Amino acid sequence: MKKLLYAFTILGIINLSFGQVQTPQPSPSTEIKQVVGLTDVTIEYARPATRGRVIFGDLVPYDQIWRTGANANTKITFSDDVKIGDDLLQSGSYAIYTRPSKDTWQVYFYTKTDNWGLPNEWDENLVAATFITQVKHSDIKVENFTIEIRNLHNDGADLALAWDDVYVKIPFEVPTKQKALTSIENTLSANPSGNDYYAAASYYQQEGKDLEKALGWINKAIEENSERYWYHRPRALVLADLGRYDEAIEAAQASLKLAETAGNTDYVRLNEKSIVKWTKKLENQ
After folding, report:
1. What gap in Å lies between CA 69 and CA 98, rounded to an integer?
2. Cα distance between residue 70 and residue 47, in whole Å
3. Which of 6, 190, 251, 262 has the highest Cβ tally under 10 A?
4. What pLDDT shows up at residue 116?
């Protein structure tokens, strides 16, 4: 009898352990990761829903500090130092707090990230950066609070916050130029490959830097492998930027022919458009 009772007790414990009720989170947590230029950006936050409520000016009062999401701190992490407005934000993790008003939001990057919601006591010494942004309204309402990284470019992006009909953005800059130039200098002074010369030349062309140096690099890449249509494309672009349209057309034709053989229709179209454009430039010279 004792053995039987013991067996039922064990079964009861097992049932309690594995029979927990599971329900959806009212404010689901999410994480987004994005490389901006050469900088890793990670955002962790919870996403409360509108559920028919009036959000700003009611659920989220105006002119008071808001946790900017739900549950634990909304946290952003940068792998490099970044610039937000006039403030330099060192690499690391920050809690994002905001002070919404009707026309503007004040955004705070707070160094203490382990609060549940707002800090028990707000400490201005822990504010690493502050940014004031204008409120925009949209005809399309966002049901769940959303943070995105938008308008990506080599040197930065926008941190975009949206909920209900409100949208705000916080532009930030990343140190891509410094990191890219250091990488190019270190790599090309060692034992560079054709791909290294191609990447360096492409970056210089995109940034409008020393085009003669870029041309020398892409020529070295093509010397290593002349069958790669994507090598000939930046060579054509560099030559066009230098105003040498006849040579640019020849380079584009080489890229086009190789792309046709490889079946890459995107490069075919790009080169066809460039050839038409540069031919007109030649005619007008």
Report:
1. 10
2. 7
3. 251
4. 86
Pairing of strands 156-173, 136-153: antiparallel
Q: How many other C-beta atoms lie within 10 A of the C-beta of residue 70? A: 18
Q: Structure pTM?
A: 0.84
If you search the block for the tokens 């130029």, which residue do you land on? 177
Cβ-contact 176, 39 below 8 angstroms: yes
With beta carbons less than 8 A apart as the criterion, state whether 198 and 184 touch.
no
**What pLDDT, in 10s, does the model give residues 243-285?**
999 999 999 999 999 999 999 999 999 999 999 999 999 888 8
Helix (H, G, I), strand (E, B) or coil at 26: coil
Q: State whether residue 269 is helix, strand or coil.
A: helix
In order of 189, 265, 269, 277, the CA distances from 273 in angstroms are 36, 12, 6, 6
